[in-house]
Amino acid sequence: MSAVALLGLLLLFFITSAVGVITGSNSLITVPVMFQFGIDEKVAVATNMFGLTFMAAGATIPFFRSRKLEINRLVPLIAVTLIGSALGAMLVGAIPNSGIRLIVSIAMLAIVAFTLFQNNGDGKGDELWRITTLGLAVTFFLAIYGGLYSGGYVTLLTAAFVAFMGMTYSGAIAATKLINVFSSLIATIVFMWQGLVDYRLGVLLAATMFVGAYAGAHFVTKMSETWLRRVFVATVILLAVKTLYDLV
Prior knowledge:
The chain is mostly helical. It has helices spanning 3-23, 27-36, 41-65, 71-90, 97-116, 133-148, 153-165, 169-193, 199-220, 225-247. It has one domain (3-247). Helix content is 79%, strand content 0%.
């Protein structure tokens, strides 16, 4: 890979990391771009996941400082995420890319439609949310997908937390950042064990994504609930439509 191509790739990862703090779905852009640079598909997924671990860590720090995270209440969600993501990482290569994209697109549209007609995440306070059996089950199955590929994982998880557990959008965005640290980390460990991570490229991507996510999260902590909801829903709809269009 030439120096110019590498700089272009790093710039793309920085921008998607900063914006992705709100919207998620970084991997729907970054992984296909890595394919275009001639990187093996499995290596691209694994190396991207390596970078995502640092991106999630960078995004989580500002939320810790703003006291938007309730770690004790998130422990059950973290536990099922670790199990699900490890299983997902072991399944890499077993599902065709077209099948993954179709599942993601349908899930995005379904969850957006659900959240638009629910009176949840209205900003009344994150102390009102609670872990439900359905929310826990959805978290587990999404974790499997998160470990498998991660494209749209945080986006869907954010919507699920709002729809099924009554979190506000700001609370869900904060919670998913912490949970994504564990999801990406366990998946990365599995990929490292399988020998799929390109460490030379991964270190550069990790540093870039950490800085981008930290900067993006700093602004998110200052945004209103209304704007977070608008940006999130609009982005999910656009990503779902684009993915369906690519399939057609």
